[in-house]
Amino acid sequence: IQTLPSNMTRIVEDSGKYYIWRSFGPDDQHTRELWVDMGDLRHGQVRLHGILSNAHKQAARVVLSFDFPFYGHFLRQITIATGGFIFTGDITHRMLTTTQYIAPLMANFDPSFSKDSTVQYLDNGTVFVVQWGKVRLQGREKDGAFTFQAALHKSGTISFSYREIPVALAHIGSADHPVKAGLSDAFMVTSSTAPAPGQRFENFTIESDKIQNNSAIEFTPLPTCLQLHSCELCHSADESLGCSWCHVLQRYLNMFKSSFRRLIYKVCDFKVLC
């Protein structure tokens, strides 16, 4: 894999076995296919977020029109940040950049610097796309404007598309703001009855040299408990999925990734399974 040219596909699995990712260079046809033309009405109505397009270090909550599967649980609300990422947590806080993010390029962007800088999004029922257009780094505005996208597909696929990247990630600097590209999820198990209670993290970091002008990254989700809709399917599933069927809620529960993750040990008796 190390000998492949930079414009060829790479396939890597994260440690949690939730995604396979592929990187595409400027010469790949799929790079052009993944880019969403926000001016093409066939993709759906585009919304220009006025506050985010004219602010620095701001975030706004958006409700999706579909349930988006992320790391083995469903999301219906996300938070778009001016800093080039989407926050997936339930409650916004000062540690927004630490975990629970979908980050095509997290950095200290300041859309308020120029009227040309915009944060736009669209949702057509099958894909949700956020575009950070012509945004510049605060204090380094002369370095040029960045334009990139994050697309969340109803199938669970995530794609990052990069049109303009004037500065390599390694040269951006993270003194004033974290610089990251990738996925992260986390949750807290606080019940004393839970096995090994505490905080859990899943992180997937993209190699910085894969992010350049006219490049793209695509994350394909691996099978999880979300595909199981009955006790019988749960019982026969691969044990590596880590799921259990809850008779009380009449649905699967991933003991580490369910959207009910803060309540499952209180609601369900995991000794009474199929």
TrEMBL record:
<dbReference type="InterPro" id="IPR031152">
    <property type="entry name" value="PLXDC"/>
</dbReference>
<comment type="similarity">
    <text>Belongs to the plexin family.</text>
</comment>
<protein>
    <submittedName>
        <fullName>Uncharacterized protein</fullName>
    </submittedName>
</protein>
<keyword id="KW-0732">Signal</keyword>
<keyword id="KW-0812">Transmembrane</keyword>
<dbReference type="GO" id="GO:0016020">
    <property type="term" value="C:membrane"/>
</dbReference>
<keyword id="KW-0472">Membrane</keyword>
<keyword id="KW-1133">Transmembrane helix</keyword>
